[in-house]
Design goal:
Rossmann fold; 583 residues; five-stranded antiparallel sheet; BirA Bifunctional Protein, domain 2; homodimer; eight-stranded mixed sheet; alpha+beta
Chain lengths: 583, 583
């Protein structure tokens, strides 16, 4: 179905929702009922004494359907402001809206559909019969302030989903269910990966030992990959003087997003808003010849954002973010090659994590809006063409988007479709022609002259630890591949008398480089195996007399019914291979 | 010589210095002239037009010696305040001192030694002849405010060294010379390890790629060693809410040392003063059984200190310190074992770095000063005895010091004598009985009850990256062992036509895990070898036709005259073994 058509149906359904509520709860005051992604909502002020719960939604949904089945045409009526006010005389929120609309127009519109008429600007189906009732579901309740202001009355918002048919609704409900199961906060807590603590403060992640293992494995991967890619690593402080961010341009424009200033005896300091200024300072600390470029400076750097406490959401919106950041300093003639190398590096990362559903977006400036961008048309032209050529030559799927660039240059965003169908931007590569001037970046060119033509590529292929961890938890549903599993092998001694033997084995596997744990609890083997399976541990080995005597082991492999028989040596080799190959 | 005797001689020498200055620069105003470690100084206000340089010091020193040789007795004279003022009528700083001394005593003392008399409380040699003139050396000039206040006049301070004889002076001068050569700031800059930048701010280290390699190697070692020791790793944010530090007791007492507060929409935040509160919060986030203890939580954590900008000194006093920190949570019956394991771990670290000249100090509380300590005599007794037993059983060299403990428990400090003869405390292990109450730390004991008897051991065997790096640079004089060398092997192609071959070799060695660099500059081999030797690179391989043809290599080994002949495979194996064994 066309998006516009579906949107009109959703709008029509919102009218039906209001009609049903008025039918069931006479005296309810109506606020607004717009469409949203996947459906619609309507905000209501219920009469004194009525307190809705989600159990009431099926009843309202039935009433909506009954009214819609009546087959009422949506009839448009033009009215004067006075007529509108008269019609809505018992609806205080509508009266407030009428006053507002009246500033723009003397004629307002009412839409009648059978028993219910609403103040509305239009955009409906022709008849309520057109609403695909088998694609309809009232979803949930929420509180919402009138006009979004906490100084105004609290209303009850009813959310509805509407799809073209039963099947599309089912697909969506299934996806929601899956997303709930894969919720990174729940899995993060179940698996003891990370938490937040009110004493420490909001939006600040405390990584527990198991989460730190995954984090460290990702850092290890990044260090390996980027070492191969010719990057060098640095370590820079988490703060800098005000002057740094005036030079970079973050101050004063970005000040609200930054943490509060700290006045020291020698000036004002801020927590890092970005890692780039620190890297620029490292670049310019030593002289560079044209032969030394490109110089690729990488760091797991932490940046700080002063998010409002109410907007924080698990790992997806935090106040301190640690990212696999790097900045590449290159000459103009190196831009294409470096951009391509970065994109190839990204694609290698994605392959390792089994991420396949992605595409690229070339985000360009808009020459009509020079106030938003550094106004160097020649540089934009050179840079955008170079990047487009790279994308074309690499034969990757990409779209172009105007007016989406960074102020300092064009960028390539990598767009993902997550396993639960959500589209998001995970990684980005940005070209920067502003830094060279702001930070006086230069190199000595072939003629021995200082050359200011240093182009900077900003890139963070693995995003931040925080966002990437949330993404990976959802992607794997907590079933980590062997190389990322906090515990790779669980040894379950059959009885207390096998515990010491299991400990010895455990030390052996640990020395081999396998993350191993022993479940020495005084419980049945069955219970230990079930526990370990619940924790999604890749391999479980029950340790009894035979295993300790050196006979072949029976390996319980995660997700497999049948056990696998294998010698200890073969098993160790298999696990080590999987770790090495990052399977 | 007895320290007290030497101090009296130094004090006497200070009088000689003032006498000599008055002789050479009549009209000079005298301030004060105390003794200090290794010598003495005197502060002067020289007459208008006199601008002293270090070139003038030999002349003053000669004059001092000439006066001292005169063999003048130090004669004590008691005078009234009025008499003292009359005597010092031309000396404004002395007059100010007299007014101050007069508050305490009606009778002041002057000391006469031949031509020079000074207001002084005494403590001299009997005669100026006793001053060991061959142990005397005027060392340097510095500016110093009168009474240390920037609102008062700037004076000229002359520093002098005085030892019992020529030999002791020579030893000290030699040590100063050695310390200067090994100065971590100089070597850090020469070797491009780290720097500070005024734009970023004071006391904030920017670790360059080569310094980051050393840092990373140290972290890798720590991760290995502490993994073997049964530690788990966590990662915690660099800040916390005010409430955290009220709970820990850092606020309000430690506030001046902390960075300024940051007011956010949900409370006040501070940069980390310590890592312990974050670890305590991680400990208590999950329930623990008595069987789970000890739990050892480790992190390379960064702490922040609001040092005054004027007191910062290279890596030795910085504003952000990253340390190999850990906290061990154990039962009382585990204290001894855990303390011993920590000391053993430390000694393993010291052996790896070739640190041999150290001893331990058991720092105890003072029951006479209960206001400085948590007042739990029984716990102090248990803890101090336990630690003493550990030190005795380990048969290590240790001293005991009263009134040197942390407020929350006794500690063991590791005292080092550096290669240049300076004593310093590098590492510390502290036992803490306060945290369990403050942070409500507990475990479930054998009876199933919550037990609050959780003892915490704080330990940081490798100190901070900053201090340890300064220490190591001095210790190795910048001649890093192979495993820490930022570049382990330098390939020096004989001519431009061997450059590609050297690059291929370089990639091979890199893939083997060796840090290798190619000097492809269009210069003579001799120059390349000299450059690399200057950079203290452990191995240099000249790459010419023979080497590329697979013949045996001639290896130039750092610090050795003769080259070593070796096949490529043997050389690679040798370097890899040295890396693995941390040689």
């Amino acid at each position: 179905m066309e998006p516009q058509k579906l949107d009109a149906l959703r709008h029509s359904a919102a009218h039906m929702l209001a009609a049903a509520v008025l039918e069931l709860y006479p005296g309810t005051k109506l606020a607004i009922g717009p469409t949203i992604e996947n459906g619609f909502y309507y905000d209501f002020k219920f009469p004194e004494g009525v307190s809705l719960s989600e159990n009431d939604l099926p009843k309202i949904e039935e009433e909506m359907k009954a009214i819609a089945k009546g087959g009422h045409a949506f009839v448009r009526k033009e009215v004067t402001v006075a007529e509108a006010k008269k019609f809505e005389k018992d609806q205080p929120f509508k009266l407030e809206l009428i006053d507002e609309f009246a500033k723009e127009s003397k004629i307002l519109t009412l839409y009648e559909s059978g028993p219910f008429t609403d103040l509305c600007r239009g955009g409906h189906a022709a008849n309520t019969k057109e609403i695909p009732l088998d694609g309809l579901k009232l979803q949930k309740l929420a509180g919402a302030y009138w006009r979004g202001s906490e100084k105004k009355p609290m209303l009850t918002r009813i959310y509805g989903l509407l799809f073209a048919n039963r099947k599309e609704l089912a697909v969506h409900l299934n996806m929601l269910e899956e997303a709930k199961k894969r919720d990174h906060r729940k899995i993060g807590q179940d698996q003891q990966l990370f938490f937040f603590d009110d004493l420490i403060g909001k939006g600040l992640v405390l990584w527990q030992p198991k989460g730190t293992i995954i984090r460290d494995e990702i850092e290890k991967l990044a260090k390996e990959m980027e070492h191969k890619g010719g990057y060098v690593r640095v370590a820079t402080p988490h703060l800098a003087k005000e002057e740094t961010y005036i030079t970079s341009g973050h101050l004063p424009y970005y000040k609200d997003s930054m943490y509060p200033a700290m006045a020291m005896d020698d000036g004002t300091y801020y927590l890092k808003a970005m890692n780039c200024p620190h890297h620029h300072v490292i670049y310019r600390h030593e002289p560079h010849s044209y032969r030394d470029l490109p110089i690729r400076i990488a760091e797991y750097g932490t940046c700080y954002r002063n998010e409002l406490s109410g907007t924080l959401a698990g790992l997806l919106r935090v106040r301190a973010l640690t990212m696999n950041d790097a900045h590449i300093y290159c000459r103009q003639d190196q831009i294409k090659q470096e951009f391509q190398s970065v994109l190839e590096l990204m694609m290698k990362y994605f392959a390792i994590f089994g991420l396949e559903d992605y595409w690229f977006r070339l985000s360009k400036w808009d020459p009509q809006h020079t106030e938003k961008y550094i106004n160097e048309p020649a540089n934009w032209e050179i840079a955008e063409s170079a990047i487009r050529e790279v994308l074309q030559e690499m034969k990757v799927q990409f779209v172009e988007a105007d007016d989406e660039a960074a102020f300092y240059g064009p960028k390539v965003d990598v767009m993902f479709k997550s396993v639960v169908g959500r589209e998001e931007t995970m990684s980005t590569v940005q070209l920067d022609f502003a830094a060279k001037k702001r930070f006086e970046l230069s190199y000595t060119d072939e003629t021995g002259q200082a050359n200011n033509g240093v182009f900077v590529i900003h890139r963070a292929p693995l995003s931040t630890h925080e966002r990437f961890m949330a993404f990976l938890i959802e992607h794997y549903a907590g079933i980590w591949p062997v190389w990322l599993s906090p515990i790779q092998v669980l040894l379950a001694p059959v009885s207390v008398k096998h515990a010491d033997g299991a400990d010895v084995l455990s030390k052996e596997l640990d020395a081999d480089g396998i993350r191993v744990s022993v479940d020495a609890a005084d419980e049945t083997v069955g219970k230990k195996v079930r526990n370990a399976a619940g924790k999604k541990i890749p391999y479980i080995v029950v340790v009894g007399d035979k295993e300790l005597a050196g006979e072949e082991w029976m390996i319980r492999v995660r997700g497999q019914e049948d056990q696998v028989k294998m010698s200890k040596a073969d098993f160790v080799a298999k696990v080590l291979r999987e770790i090495k190959e990052r399977l």
